[in-house]
Amino acid sequence: MANVSVYNMEGKEVGTIELSDAVFGAEIKENLVHQAVVQQLANNRQGTQKAKTRSEVSGGGRKPWRQKGTGHARQGSTRAPQWTGGGVVFAPVPRDYSFKMNKKEKRAALQSALTSKVQDNKLVVLDELKFGEIKTKNMKNVLDALKVDNALIVINPDSENVQISARNIEGVATASPSTINVYDILKYNTVIVTRSSVATIEEVYA
């Protein structure tokens, strides 16, 4: 098991914590990490792009001129793709870009991402993180004490004051242990977790 230092909100070391190898010391599987990131980005795509084909454009029912004898190339409709106002060839249509990953693969990808943060010393464990009031300055002071400016803060859902206090800080995002994902873990330089969040993550993703 990996031993990681535990800090308080003033940035002082107050102890250590043993992290479960099942979650924070797993084998890093880069192929699954890549697949998980691609899946999340694909699932976030709206896929609502649309253009009309020649069968959907209004008008053009009448042949513009007779087949032979005009000197023009033969034309069947003024809504063919080569005409101004005509349909689009191979027009894009709404589609679903999402795809699925097996639960075991998603879990292995998340374990790999968390393990990489531990190996890079980019996982910071706090003894606790709670504020008596909603104040951005309080959150900024904690980040400055930890010497962190780009972080994903993993807190329990009941920490509303912390969540709102961090909302307006650029380069900082919050998530609960049940909603963390590979993309956000890799997107931010540092992952900050509390003792209680570590216990929840180990329980859910072990």
Automatic annotation (TrEMBL):
It comes from the Bacteria. It holds the Pfam family Ribosomal_L4. GO terms for cellular component: ribonucleoprotein complex; ribosome. Signal peptide: none annotated. Residues 43-85 are annotated as: Disordered. Keywords: Ribonucleoprotein, Ribosomal protein, RNA-binding, rRNA-binding. GO terms for biological process: translation. GO terms for molecular function: rRNA binding; structural constituent of ribosome. PANTHER family: 50S RIBOSOMAL PROTEIN L4, LARGE RIBOSOMAL SUBUNIT PROTEIN UL4M. Part of the 50S ribosomal subunit. Forms part of the polypeptide exit tunnel. One of the primary rRNA binding proteins, this protein initially binds near the 5'-end of the 23S rRNA. It is important during the early stages of 50S assembly. It makes multiple contacts with different domains of the 23S rRNA in the assembled 50S subunit and ribosome. This is Large ribosomal subunit protein uL4. The lineage of its organism: Bacteria, Bacillati, Bacillota, Clostridia, Lachnospirales.
